[in-house]
Amino acid sequence: MKARTVIGLITFVLLVAAGMVFYTWNSRPRLIEIYPTAGAINVPATSPIRVVFSRSMQTESVSAHLKIEPAIRGTFSWDNNILTFTPEQAWPGGQEISVSLEAGAKTASWMAFPMSRQSWSFTTSEAALAYLWPSNGPADIYTLDPVTGEIHRYTYKMEVIDFSASSDGMTIYFSASNAQDGADLYRIDRFEAESSINNSYQPKELLVCGVAQCRSPVVSFDGHYLAYEYLLPTLRGGLGPAQIWLLSLPDLQATPLGQVSHETVQPSWSPMGLLAYYDRSSSEYEVVNTLSQERALLPNQTGQPGTWSPNGEYYLAPEISYHQAPGNYETGTSHLLRYDIQSNTTDDMSGATDVEDVEASYSPNGGAIAFTRKFLDVARWSLGRQIWIMNADGSNPHPITDEADYNHYDLAWSRDGLMLAYVRFNQAKLSDLPEMWIVYADGSNPVQLVIGGYSPLWIP
Q1: In a domain, 92, yes or no
Q2: pLDDT, tens digit, for every residue of 70-118?
Q3: What pTM value is reported for the model?
Q4: Comparing C-alpha atoms, which of 273, 265, 222, 270 is closest to residue 241?
């Protein structure tokens, strides 16, 4: 009996030990999914890194052990076992990004099993500049690689009116004329378009508008909605007042926004999902939360296009004001106003008095604002507006172009914030075509890209 008891105890101990080994082995955390996948190429330069673990993890432990080369600032967020790292600015274009989770990251369980080292890499897509060409005829969408000069054409004789891109740059939305003198909405998948053989790719038609013009399409940052202007023809010819509509992309259902009797234009999405547009009937920007339907009104007489700060906190737009000038006559100036959506306050960012400031655009990291300025006093007046840059708080305004006869517009920051694309037009020779250029943010190395090109937009 004693021998059997000893054997039984040994067997029991071995079974318990085997169970503990089995439990320990299966309790070790594992990576069950990563995005971008290992070895992925042409990853959008704005892509986050997402890691799915097999078990709940100690969040601080994982953050401390995650290494990224080249190093980049960003934020960590968790959804159960899913970690997402969102970079503050775009990844370097066309480079290999190495990611490693060093040994030692621990689970959230009481036994806190550590992970072994895991590593992988992916390669980002090269930055390209999308634009419309030609300015003196029916336009199509092109992209240009500023480094190699390679040009890719996305549409063929479609008479494109305007276009925009998704937040990751991989989808292009555009408006194009139709045979009924209206304009329809389309979508381009860049990966499919660039993978097509002999330019056989056809854009997908999203919305047939018939005799109406659907134009100025802009997609929300989450990709759920496309806001656009909808204009019907009048009995006397021409087009009636525009109204902002929303197209739900999952089911392609379209609905109007705002008051039916008001003319509304220039839709613009914030990164937080707010939609701003200008109401010409009431002379104010309207900011709408499309989920809660909460609205904020920003008074503005000018009604020119505005721009959102990258964090969605501010909306920046020009405003005209009038004052008495020497000689008892009234003169007008245009200053950039920064609207704080939460506090409902407004700041004058221009500072200077006799100026015409328009075309503001925040840098991708929000640290700088590019805009165009023209002095209105006699001593400094010029035909064209020049490109200026200032800090996000309005300090240190300075010009980066000095070409008095040229008007500069269509400012577009590169995703890394190092360069600006723009269009310039010779105000002294109105027969000349507009020219598309790029320049570094410090004003150095301006390069002409395309004569007759316009509406530049950087896409990763």
Answers
A1: yes
A2: 998 889 999 999 999 988 877 888 889 999 999 888 888 766 667 788 8
A3: 0.84
A4: 265
